[in-house]
Amino acid sequence: MKRFLILMLLCITVIMLVAGCVPEKPVKDGKGELAVTIDREFTTPATHSPLEWWQTHHPTVINSGDIKEQDCLYCHQVDRSCNNCHGYVGVRKIK
Ligand code: HEC
Ligand code: HEC
User: Fold this and answer.
1) pLDDT > 70: what percent of the chain?
2) Is the bond leading into 45 cis (omega within 30 degrees of zero)?
3) 95 domain residue, yes or no
4) pTM for the whole thing?
5) CA of 67 to the centre of ligand 1 (A)
6) Fewest Cβ atoms nearer than 10 Å: which of 18, 28, 30, 79?
């Protein structure tokens, strides 16, 4: 019986993986529609370091007026590296 249950669980997991039921997340250099990609010709500005800090604090920096939103778009394309993540987390779209 136990073995049967384990087999069932395994089957369900495999089916979910194949069917793509595992939700896609916006991952940098990831795959799929939500992947966050930035053109390679650009180097990472100092404001982005450490990147984990920047991921959570970029709104504060922009809202405080230190950096203008438009300045980000010099390197970032809104569809590929702002709004795919914003759509996922439910933040307003950048224009
Ligand atoms: C000089 C070019 C440049 C500018 C200007 C710039 N970025 Fe970036 N940004 C990058 C690069 C390159 C990366 C990738 C960093 C890495 O791979 O470590 C990145 C990464 C990010 C990430 C992380 C994405 C992820 O999925 O982890 C966020 C968020 C981000 N930038 C937001 C902004 C915002 C907001 C601004 C404007 C205030 C901005 N960037 C301005 C080049 C830039
Ligand atoms: C990896 C995910 C991710 C990426 C990529 C990303 N953001 Fe964000 N952004 C967020 C999250 C999460 C918040 C909300 C944070 C909070 O409310 O504490 C946010 C909030 C913001 C806000 C504040 C919105 C408001 O209404 O106050 C601005 C402005 C902003 N992001 C600009 C940008 C720009 C410009 C880019 C592209 C250059 C970008 N973000 C890329 C995750 C991301």
Assistant:
1) 96
2) no
3) no
4) 0.85
5) 12
6) 18
